[in-house]
Structure formats: structure tokens, C-alpha cells
Amino acid sequence: MDDEIDDLVPQKQSLFPMTADDIVDNALHNLDEKQAQEVTKKAADEIVKIAVEKRKAEYRSDRAQEEMRNLINNANLLDQKVDDYRINSTFETATGTTSVEIKKSKSNTLILIAAIALFLLLAVILLVTRI
Amino acid sequence: MEIIIPVILAIVAAFYFFNRSHFSPLPRRVSRATENTELIKVLLNLDDESLKKLFHLYGEQFGDGAARYARQTYLKWKAGEVRPNRETFRRFLLQLPKVMSFDLKCEVLRELREAYCARDSHRLTVYTDNWKEPLRPLVESIIEKAESAELPPFLQQRLRWLAEEDMEIAQVILAKSQARQSLEALSMLKEEFSNIEHLLDNTVGRRQVTHVLRLPLGTITLKIRKR
What we know:
The complex is a heterodimer. Chain A is 73% helix and 13% strand.
């Protein structure tokens, strides 16, 4: 297990391959031979299933990394060419979904500055008229 | 003075009306027929291979005609367009498990766990330079939940085969498997945060990044920021 996950997960955590032995032991004691075989097979199948899912997740991670690189390039190109833009992207990653929104709006900034300036102007006028 | 009480009552009523989604609803009593329909829907969520095995077994036990009808109707059962009758429920969920392989029963159990074990949902804001600390308690709780999650009592009472010894072992296998899947997913988070940090470092403008971390028994929605 990676170092970073050791940081996140409590150390007392017992992991699947270790406890699978206990499960099989119990099965051998309490079930008939055929049932015990089925249990052993299922436990092994689960380990394989987890490994397959991990591979799929790694593939998704590589693809998301590539797509994010493309997004960075596109966003920077757009930033050089236009003043107002909004980009929404979604990536299927190893652990879930990442959604990114990048936006830039010069006209909104100008409107905001104008509104603040107007407000200040009104405040000054009010102050002057009161004096 | 007498107008104050109606005004207060009106304010309280308005507050309740506009915030009614925050008040926990009274437990809803579901009819047996609805419960059966839901259970059949869950069963029919099996993956293609398991579904094929299920219908094969259904044909063996109840005849080709019944199997043909089930194959033709299962999409309608799944979509809720046709409500399965009591006999269908009994066949699928009470009689078939007696002859199912351990593997197939495990897959049915997996679907039941997916549908009926309570799932956690958390939202959290984290920074790219400090995401592990705030995430730690949620991760611990979800992994612990994966290990200890149990099906609701009503289900165990209705589907008695779930209490048999081999199914108890199946529960342990699936619970450990789900906990392990959570760990495997989390082991890849560092790389994902590194990708997101790279994106935030190399773009300009206003950026909003949200990551939905999906684990077998819960989701954590992370709003990611850079200081």
C-alpha cells in the first residue's frame, strides 16, 4: 500500500487477503466440502475483481491526466485571444468525477468597478449636500 | 396583543414550509407489493453474466414458458412499467436462492447490499496543500461502514436464506471486499490531487474544482481550492 494511503487509513485496519484466510478456515470447519470450495473460489474471485477494478481505475486516471493537460492548453489559448470565456469540463478519474470550471469576464469586472465608482460618487454627493 | 399569536404562528408555519426538506420525514410504510417490486428491481440489476445464469436457472426450475415470459418482461419489471406478482417474487427471491450457486447468491447479495445498506454522503472544502487531515475522519468512517454494514432487519426476516451459514460468510467476503476497494481507490487520490494542483497552477481566471469521490458505501464531494 502506498505511503499516502497509510497516512489516511487507520493502521489497525486489517486487510482483505489476511482475513480471507480466517473466512476460509471458518468455512472449512462449518460447511461441507463443496460449499467450502465455493467460498474459497469466491474469495479468490473477489481479489481478482479488485485487481481488475484497480487496473481500470489506473487507465481512467491516465486518461484524465491527459484530458486535463489539454484543458490547460485550451484555457491558456483562449485566455490570450478573448476577454470573456467560461469553460466547463468533467473528467472520469480513478476515484470518481472531477468537474472544473474556468471563467474570466473582463466586462463583469468593468461593471463591478463602475458600480463601486457610482456608489462612491453617490456617497460623496450625499456627504457634500449634508455639509 | 391578540394579533401577536397568529403572527408568530404564521412565521413558524412559513419557516416550516420553506425549510421542510430539512425536517426528517416520518418513516414511510411501504406496502408488501411495493417492497416486492423494489426487491425484484434490485435483483434484476445483476450484471449480464449473472442475469443469464439466473434466467437459465429460472427455466430449469419453472419451465421454458415461465422463463420466456420472465426474459420478455424483465425490462418492464426493472423500469416499473409492469409490477411483478407475488408468485414471481416468490420464485425469484425465495425459491431460486435454494438452488443458486454460492457465486450467484453472492452476486444477489452484492446487489442487495448496494441497494439497502445505508450510504454516507459528505461535502467538504479542502485545499491542495492540506487535504489529508480534513479527509481522514470521513475516510475512517466510510471504511468502518464498509466493514460493518448490515442489511436492514426487515430484509433478513423476509429473505430467510440470507441468514444461512454460507451467506454469513458471503457477507464477510463482500464487506471485506468493499473495504478493500475503498482503500485501493484512496491510494490513488494523491495523484489526482497532484493533477488538480497542476491544473490550478497553470491556468488563469476564476477556477472552481469539485471532485466527487465515489466509494462502495458512500460519496464525498470535495470542493478543492488553492491558497
